[in-house]
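Quick sanity check, GNAT family N-acetyltransferase:
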Amino acid sequence: MSEIKIVRYKKSYAAGVADMWNNSHEGWGGSDVVLSKEQVEKNEENSGNIDTFLAVEDNKVLGYCSLSNYTFDDNTMYIPLLNVRTDQHGKKIGKRLLLKAIERVVELGKPRLDLFTWPGNTKAVPLYKKTGFFWEDRSDTTHLMNFIPAVLNTEALKDCFKQLDWFDDNVRKADVVPDGIKENDFEYYRYSWKNSSTFLEVEFDRRGRCIRSIETPEYKITATAEGLNLVFGSEYQITYKIINKTETPLDIKVEGIDDKNIKHSLSKNLTVPSTYVVKSKFKVNPIDEEQSIWKTHPAALAEFEINGKKANIGVGIAPQFPIKMEAKVPHNYCHLDKESDFYIDLKNNFSEEVRLNLNLDDSELINLPKQRFDITLKAGQKKSLQVPYSLLNFGFYTSNSEALVETESGEKVNFKTNIAAPFKGYSSIFWGEDQHNWLLFNGPHQTVIEKLAGWRNVTKQACNELAFLPPRLGKPYSDEFDRVRPCKVEFSKQEGEGTLKLIYNSQQFPGLQLIVYNKLYSNGLLENYLEVINTDNSSTLEDVWISIPVYLDFAACILPYENKFIHIKDSAAFCLDYWKSDLVTENWLYGYEKGSSCGVSWDNDFTLAFNDWSISLLKNLGKLSQKSSVKTKSVFLSVNTFDSWHKFRNFSIGENKPIPMMSDPLQLQVNGGNPFVSQNFKVEVVEKRTNYLSGDFSMFPKRDSFDKIKKSISLDESRQNASFDVTLRKNSLDIDTLSCENSTKGVVSKWERVIIPKGNKEVEKKLVSKEDMDVYTVSNGNLSFSMSSKFGPYLYDLQFLGKNWLDSSFPKAGPKSWFNPWNGGITFRCDKLRSSCIAKEETNLSAVKLDDNKGNTWHGIKATVELKEHDELKGLVIHQHYLTMEGMPVICQYNTVEQKTGQYFDKNLITQGFLCLDELQDCFAEYNNMQGERLHHKGAAFDLQDTCFSSLVFGNNKLNHKLQIISDTNQDHKLSLSLSQDIMFFNFVTSSSLADGDFYKLPPIFYIFTGEALSEQSLVELKGIRF
């Protein structure tokens, strides 16, 4: 039988690690992520892990355990990921990996190992507890701490483990509940080991993360302090109870240990025959900021030397300000020279009533009519102090305020407290510091830099979708800046921008200094770049790498991927493990949710890498010569700066590009993306993410044009596309909608696509005479359309089943409604070019044949107007193409412009169409508004001008067919509807920006006659057609 070995990760195991993760989905909530060898290699290279251990059997990776420094506390190790293949559960692989990680922490001399999990992880929590982890009782997270390394590295306990096995002899219960023995405000975690020869109990204090009690067969020593939440500035008592269980006196030496702001002077040499109590005073010195629950608290500690063997014993303390004070400014924006109030929230941290005398500093920012306050607070009472003020200047108010507290028992305590708060305006640039953050303000925008973990957010209100994480030097990449604060913070400002510089000195790369520039602009852009300085007198021996991590949590996003623009509509599909960073084809990512948007963009000088929940931007700076420095290119975060993804794209790429179409992560492609189909065609389902297709597929028509198709695909087939052959029924020429459903284990996906069968009636073009005019008519059976050069560049007649659907003045222009002259029909022109001006120009008509990007061949009329009489627009050439195909109830309008005016051209281009079928009062128009509501407007009812956020459906209540008008609309190509009592018309308004000599193609517009309105989703492929 082969042996399972625990080995360190190396690159040759990457494929095996990928296979392990791909066979572990059940253990991670049914994830369907499929990782590749290349993704694993990149993840490991950029991880910053100290070690990664693998469980391997016959070169097959069965389990994984990574080990890194812990971000939120000092001198602590952390397990970012622990996993065992689902089919290998029950073989104690997880146990062996954890034991190896603990062994490594002991080797490193660290006292603690932490991890996070979820409260419902009922399989793993008992193992965690068996291997020494305690579940901290907190409401905000599921955090576990393991003190076994501290136990094994404590000199006084080492002899105990000559008789005890710390894992096998552990008799502690492993219930799936938070741990902790509560005594007064303190909380302790107890290890218990026992076998036939001996026993050992060790208790750890939760907050001080230190040994609080040791009990062996020979002795028991326990520490107890008079309180947990102790006001600084006073002395308090700690009691050590020593019990000698033997007949032989116990020799003990005790020395107090100073820890952080706690001063503990104690020195005793004891001989303890049975029981002895040591009472000692320790002083809690002032603190600058509140104690974080994430950090090890200062402890009242003493070193015990017991029969020559040492152990540190004590309890953690939560030092308190005499009165906790925190300033709060109501509202997001303040107003100059207006009387208002801000508030200081107070909390009495004494266990008795106190009287507080508080003096606030005056400032050039605010005028305080009252600066001295006298307040009485009961024991533990909270109270909000109202402070009147008027604002002189926007900025960050800081008051290093003098405070005097007099307790009911007569004790007087003088202390200083830092009261800090921003008074923000719409255009002010300033910075400040409170006890938790450094803050940079520019008008309504702010950057928040957390002191605890170094995260840098840019916000307009409060937003955590996007943040810079602390940068990393490498290689290998070090996470040292996750845990240390900058040695210096500097502020500067120029017109329209404010900058905070964070300066770090690297310990992992001696001689290197890192400066992080955070530049906040008035529009909400946060620019970040780095400077690395070699302060040594010699060059670096290796290349210096930099990694800029960015945290992302997009509700929905646009991803430029494989030269497409993937529209990811939910956060689950944006899981970064689904995507390969080397297939991201542009230098930006854009996220949005209702009412807000955000984005990250970077210079192409960086290499993009995806991590579990963040991206990293990597750059090799090369070797740094002595006393030299290198600056990186910039990375930008945007929050509510750009109202559309394509504007953010243009900013990121530095070019103004037309708005491209978007694609879905899971795509349905009918006939290669071509909605115009022959009798036999293929349908494909394509998965653009890294995961595989699975589940039941069904495909069916809305109008019975083909037989229903069913197919099932297993995950084991490892397929990312599936093909289906569709055969239309003979003589099935009506427009239909193809529906497809994919039902997997976790989700049902649905698609609709319009299919328009090609007919067999050839397109006819003929020149006829009407109203003494030459009229060019095109027909394909049931459909025809006509133009006359003498009438002008207007499609005046659009016939379907013998009825004209257009409202026109043909053969002669005349006044109507708001227009004079009015020609009606459908036409294309530029803004400010009136019908009277067009009438002065010559219209040329010709037959045309064009192929689109899907290989379809279209036939029809081309109408060209070259402006010669218009002074401003002279030289502009306007082309209209009205096209159709064999036997189809479809017309395509394709417009182009040749810009030969000799000037720059930035006018709107307008396609306008007037609709009427028989009587206007019997007509109607339907479309969706901005909220997605379906609107139905009657003709000849009232005046209306409204933007359409969908295609436009036009019809007559007395007829079954409808005319649906469709184009790839967006912010640069908008559709609107106008109504009055005697007219109904639509406009497509397309913005343009053309240099002299440019040739501009507009998105085509389709006019489709259909019995039922086609859904917007079904029109996706039709909108993708271009010429």
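Posting the structure with no commentary besides this: The domain at 764-1023 is CATH 2.70.98.10 (Beta-galactosidase; Chain A, domain 5).
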